[in-house]
Inverse folding.
């Protein structure tokens, strides 16, 4: 019995050492999973998808029951808003036409990039409490590539960090390890935004930057993301005189707790 | 019953047991990444993998605790992790160490489950923190302790005994057992 126990201890130590080595070798991050990983990932993704959808279904069903009361009121305000937005849209369309005409006149190049959208649904979220990583059901087969930006209609969600054949890993912008170069839309001040363990977004801005509560934050030209993607609004600004910086808390436009469908975007080639 | 038939029966049950535990690991992983995401309270999710590991470590010792820990952890690393083996290593060591208590605890009582769940969460999270610390991720320790580790250990201590009863009942089933009457 004693011998058996010792044997177990020896095996445990050997496996532990082997794991430490694999951690050391893989900690730089991988962008392509190995064949084995890809196999497990491809097999598990469809199953996860079913369970994830089941969860969403129950949540939505119960959610609707509670929302029945406010439904009529919401409908009315939304219809009013649609009318207002339609009118605004017409104006903007006119302005876009005018803009294009003037640009042509001045022979400016097209500055607004066009995107290709790949629709994807989320299949699973990281079980741990430390990081915010999730998997989606589109991969190499659907032309998803590493570092592609992931968005929803509300704004920026994250970045693809690993691509398997029919699944990809996405790191959310609220992840501790994520950092993005951003710009304040109103004043064009730049800063760095990163997530933290509490799934909040914190930006570090220079002390002299002009930023107030309610400012819109978008991605800048220098980030791995495409520029001009909407991140969120400034929630609070804290001045740190000694560190010569401002600590800005940002409220993301995306509700990360209710994420179901996302888009992977790719910049279309200039030819079209 | 002859000696040889007895041996065949025992090895058959051993295989069945390993298969069932592997299935438990897989189901646990799939549920953790999907349905159990809705068990988050103030952003903290109980660690069901820890519950599974401690339950088996209490009932059956280090070998089971370590085995379940290693494979659940590796599965998590594979699908969601960055560096391969962080979770595998932390969970395996946790399972192995909790399993050392196996011979000295009452398996019918719910008390060991409560205590070891708290202990296991602390152990696992600290191992995890230590490894990620070396891979250049700067997380404030006090912040992590107050916002993740302590709430999660309390949450685990509440759910642990309930799950332990279910797993205990499953383990008492004849096909899971070593005893032949």
């Amino acid at each position: 019995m004693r011998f058996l126990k010792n044997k177990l201890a020896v095996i445990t130590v050997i496996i532990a050492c082997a794991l430490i080595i694999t951690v050391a070798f893989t900690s730089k991050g991988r962008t392509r999973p190995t064949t084995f990983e890809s196999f497990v990932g491809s097999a598990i993704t469809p199953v996860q998808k079913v369970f994830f959808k089941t969860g969403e279904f129950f949540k939505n069903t119960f959610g609707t029951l509670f929302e029945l009361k406010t439904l009529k009121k919401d409908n009315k305000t939304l219809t009013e808003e649609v009318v207002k937005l339609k009118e605004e849209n017409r104006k903007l369309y006119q302005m876009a036409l005018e803009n294009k005409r003037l640009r042509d006149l001045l022979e400016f190049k097209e500055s607004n990039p066009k995107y290709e959208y790949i629709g994807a649904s989320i299949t699973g979220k990281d079980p741990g409490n430390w990081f915010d990583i999730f998997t989606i059901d589109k991969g190499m087969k659907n032309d998803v590539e590493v570092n592609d930006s992931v968005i929803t209609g509300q704004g920026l969600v994250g970045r693809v960090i690993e691509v398997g054949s029919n699944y990809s890993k996405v790191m959310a912008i609220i992840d501790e390890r994520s950092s993005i170069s951003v710009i304040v839309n109103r004043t064009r001040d730049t800063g760095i935004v990163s997530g933290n363990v509490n799934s909040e977004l914190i930006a570090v801005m220079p002390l002299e930057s002009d930023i107030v509560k309610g400012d819109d934050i978008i991605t800048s030209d220098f980030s791995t993301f495409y520029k001009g993607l909407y991140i969120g609004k400034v929630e609070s600004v804290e001045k740190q005189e000694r560190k010569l910086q401002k600590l800005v808390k940002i409220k993301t436009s995306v509700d990360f707790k209710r994420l179901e469908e996302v888009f992977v975007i790719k910049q279309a080639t200039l030819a079209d | 019953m002859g000696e040889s038939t007895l041996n065949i029966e025992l090895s058959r049950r051993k295989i069945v047991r390993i298969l069932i535990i592997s299935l438990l690991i897989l189901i646990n992983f799939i549920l953790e990444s999907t349905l159990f995401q809705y068990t988050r309270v103030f952003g903290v999710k109980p660690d069901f993998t820890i519950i599974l590991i401690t339950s088996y470590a209490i009932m059956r010792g280090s070998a089971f605790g370590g085995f379940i820990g290693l494979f659940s952890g590796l599965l998590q690393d594979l699908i969601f992790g960055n560096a391969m083996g962080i979770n595998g290593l932390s969970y395996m060591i946790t399972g192995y160490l909790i399993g050392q208590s196996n011979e000295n605890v009452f398996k019918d009582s719910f008390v060991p489950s409560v205590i070891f769940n708290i202990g296991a969460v602390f152990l696992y999270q600290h191992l995890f923190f230590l490894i990620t610390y070396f891979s250049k991720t700067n997380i404030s320790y006090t912040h992590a302790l107050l916002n993740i580790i302590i709430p999660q250990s309390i949450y685990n201590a509440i759910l642990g005994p309930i799950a332990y009863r279910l797993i205990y009942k499953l383990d008492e089933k004849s096909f899971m057992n070593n005893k032949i009457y």
Remarks:
- The CA atoms of residues 6 and 180 of chain B lie 8 Å apart.
- Chain B touches chain A through 49 residues (CB under 8 Å).
- The two ends of chain B are 11 Å apart (CA to CA).
- The mean pLDDT of chain B is 84.
